[in-house]
Design a protein that fits this description.
By secondary structure, the chain is of the alpha+beta class. The chain folds into three domains: 3-150, DNA methylase specificity domains (Adenine-n6-DNA-methyltransferase TaqI, Chain A, domain 2, Alpha-Beta Complex); 152-194 and 348-389, Helix Hairpins (Orthogonal Bundle); 204-346, Alpha-Beta Complex (Adenine-n6-DNA-methyltransferase TaqI, Chain A, domain 2), CATH 3.90.220. It contains twelve helices and 20 strands. It has a five-stranded mixed β-sheet with strand order 12-14-13-18-15. A four-stranded antiparallel β-sheet has the order 2-8-5-6, sandwiched between helices. Strands 11-19-16-17 form a four-stranded antiparallel β-sheet.
């Protein structure tokens, strides 16, 4: 397919600088990259910043203002997120935070097609490789002017937009279904057991170190190449995915001798991410459905007085409690000793088993939805590769 430089299709620029002293609490909306990203995702934004109407009129009269069909693209934060300007839109925007793609060839490219192109792996990889900045990358006008995209005729662009958009709707629907099933499990838990921190039904409570065995993982010496092979999966924190019951397949495995040096648990154990770069990642849990080894960023919890599926849900619901004492300014760690000291409710095994049966039923539905989602995602990725390279 023919490639075309974006500079042949758009005048790419930004805005006249507006200083922070000119920001207001009312007036004309003033957008940064975060507001454009929110508009792109949700179609609306609860804006917090504005500029005076007089300043807006002065700048737009001298420098122009975004017109319907122009595309605003984030240049900081999450790079390359697009928003197509709509009729009636009135806003100004932060220079450097947002790139302004002004139409100059509307007879050759549809704005929605440009948005889909920016969602493609090829464009994302180009932006990532060419973003400037040592710590926080930026997508610049200079980089945008170097970019090329596949450019079919307008009628084909319309077909591509329609096909990709339909798949995006299906993907979002499947994702929402998974979220709703997770919420159903949590709602059932609260119905049966109440808020575990408040313990309204007066269940016995105990430190988790007295009801479970807690094991911290490790990394067999990298200096001994014989420790790594294909004998046993070696789970890392990225294999623990929120909302997914079992760990994903590990990219790296230990040899038989490496497994002897490692930490291993059988199926029906819980793996918890206890060292991570963000507080949101600490406390993620999964249930092993196979015998695995795991690294030192993970604590395994082997239940002794709990049904595993009940405890899995209890830990998910108790995420805020698990991380409340962690100081991310230092190094975010939920240590084995701190985890063992956490106190949780211990309902009767009969009630725990009843709840576990409910989880198994819901998880059957989740597996079916996840399979449909994976199939749709595979088709989406294939079409994006076909259309955009």
């Amino acid at each position: 397919m023919v490639k075309e430089k974006l500079s042949n299709l758009y005048d790419i620029g930004s805005s006249k600088r507006v200083f922070q002293s000119e920001w207001r609490e009312e007036g004309v909306p003033f957008y940064r990259a975060r507001e454009i990203a929110r508009l792109s995702e949700d179609g609306y934004v609860d804006n917090e910043l504005f500029i005076d109407e007089d300043l807006y009129e002065e700048y737009t009269e001298r420098y122009g203002k975004p017109q319907p069909g122009d595309v605003m693209v984030t240049g900081v934060g999450t790079l390359g997120v697009c928003y197509v300007v709509k009729p009636g839109d009135e806003f100004y925007f932060k220079d450097g935070n947002i790139l302004w793609f002004k139409q100059k060839a509307p007879d050759r490219i549809l704005p929605e097609y440009l948005v889909k192109a920016f969602d493609s792996k090829e464009v994302k990889d180009f932006i990532s490789k060419n973003s400037s900045g040592t710590t926080v990358g930026t997508f610049t006008i200079q980089t945008a002017n170097k970019m090329e995209i596949s450019l079919p005729p307008l009628d084909q662009q319309k077909e591509i937009i329609e096909r990709i958009s339909k798949l995006e709707v299906i993907i979002k629907k499947r994702q929402l279904e998974l979220e709703m099933l997770d919420e159903l499990i949590k709602a059932r838990f609260v119905e049966m057991f109440g808020d575990p921190r408040i313990n309204p039904f007066g269940y016995d409570t105990e430190e988790i170190g007295k009801t479970c065995k807690v094991i911290t993982g490790n990394t067999p010496s990298r200096k001994v190449s014989e420790y790594y092979g294909d004998y046993m999966e070696w789970i890392k924190t990225d294999n623990i995915v929120s909302g997914v019951l079992n760990p994903t397949k590990a990219a790296e495995c230990l040899s038989e001798s490496g497994a002897e040096e490692g930490r291993i648990v059988d199926e029906n154990s819980i793996l918890m991410a206890c060292i991570a770069g963000s507080i949101a990642s600490i406390g993620r849990v999964c249930v092993t459905d196979r015998r695995v080894a795991f690294n030192q960023q993970i604590n395994a919890i082997v239940p002794e007085q709990y049904n595993t599926l009940f405890l899995y849900t209890l830990l998910q619901i108790s995420k805020d409690y698990l991380v409340e004492d962690i100081n991310m300014a230092l190094k975010g760690i939920l240590s084995k000793s701190k985890l063992e000291e956490k106190v949780f409710i211990v309902p009767s095994m009969e009630l725990q088993d009843q709840f576990a049966e409910f989880i198994e039923q819901v998880d059957t539905s989740k597996v079916a939805v996840q399979k449909a989602l994976d199939e749709t995602q595979t088709l989406f990725d294939s079409l994006m590769q076909e259309y955009f390279g």
